[in-house]
Structure formats: C-alpha cells, structure tokens
Amino acid sequence: MKMARSGASIDEKKIYVFGGCWDVADSSNWVEVYDLQTDTWEFLSVFTPKMPLKIQQSVVTDNNKHVHAVDEDGQIFNFSATECAFESDGRRESNPENRSNWLFAVGDTIFCRGTGGKILWRFPSQLDWKEVHGLEELQQQHSGFDIIKMLIHSNERMAILWESRTQGPEHVLELWYAEISMVRGCIDGVLEVVGTIEWSGPIFSDSSVTGLNLLFAETFYL
C-alpha cells in the first residue's frame, strides 16, 4: 500500500480501502484500491460530501458496482466504483458500533451479527434491521452466546463461529461452528429471512486456555 491505513471492502477482483489515514487525508489519497489480477495498488481520487476519518462498517453490493459504508458517526455512504464518487443522502445508521461483521448475500440483503447469537438483516436502501428467524433452538442451546465471526459460504449459505464452555468441573473452552442456509419468504404477510441450521458442532477444544482471540477465518472448497 502507498499509505498505512485500515478498513477494507473486498469484491471478486479488487480490494477497496477507505480512510484510515487521519490528518493527511484528502480527496486524492482517501481511497486506495488493490487489483488482484495486476498485483498493484493505486490511489483513487474521489469526490465525497464529507471526509470521514474512520469507516465503521462496509460491504460490497450491487454486483460489485457499489460499496455500502457507514462511518464512526453513523452516516451512510455509497461508493460507486465506476464513477469514483461517494453519495450520501444524510441517512444515519443507529448504533453502528453494535452492527458488526457486515456481509452481502441472499440476493441483495445485508447481514450483520447482533447480540445473544442473533443474525440481523436489512436491504441497503432501508435502515431498520430485522432478526433472522429459525435460530431459536441454537440460541436456547447456547444461552447468552455471542457470535465472534460470520462468513459467507455461498450466496444463500453462511457460517458462524462462537465460544462455548462445557459443563462440569473443567469448563473446557470450545470453538463452535454452524453452517446456516438462508431463504427469504413471507411470514404472516411480512417479508422475512429464515435460517436453517445445516450442521453445527465444536471444531476446537482446549482445557488449558481461558480465552480465545480469533484473528481470521475464511471458507474455501477442497
């Protein structure tokens, strides 16, 4: 990279990095893009109605043509990769610090992880988040757990990881994994997203550690 910064959004061919360069930020250096095919970084000179220093969340949408982003103040931006411009209509995301790990799947739907093992969803044009149905049994089985990572498995399937403690005197720390298929449908005349647990179980356990810091996780096919 040409500048040290943080906060990346990834599509199939490029990695976009917004902000993260603090006081030296201006329209000529605020965005960098990495091309996976040419293995090169370059600046994108962009127009933006505001120069936010920190992007809280971002996700690639609309067939890799736009990046939907929220800054630390909750202001929503849409970045056009074709026009190299940010658009903002003044809408704000409520409580952005508790809406993390954004993913784009099931057609045109944004997902994020909530608290208590909940997965939330909304459309890019909307502000209200709704809870994914069908995960109640998992939430009851692991009462009070929080998802530590969500992954896209395919367009209509995702995976989640979380910590759990076994019952008994040893309280062994376990890392659990669940694969969930997602479909949209109407419940009592209201459009909802329903999840089905395809598989779940512990994939790691250790009685000698007191905590787990999951740095990175990704899905791939063998």
UniProtKB/TrEMBL annotation:
It holds the Pfam family Kelch_FKB95. It comes from the Eukaryota. Residues 2-202 form the FKB95-like N-terminal Kelch domain. InterPro entries: F-box/kelch-repeat_ARATH, Gal_Oxidase_central_sf, Kelch-typ_b-propeller, Kelch_FKB95. This is FKB95-like N-terminal Kelch domain-containing protein. It comes from Capsella rubella. The lineage of its organism: Eukaryota, Viridiplantae, Streptophyta, Embryophyta, Tracheophyta.
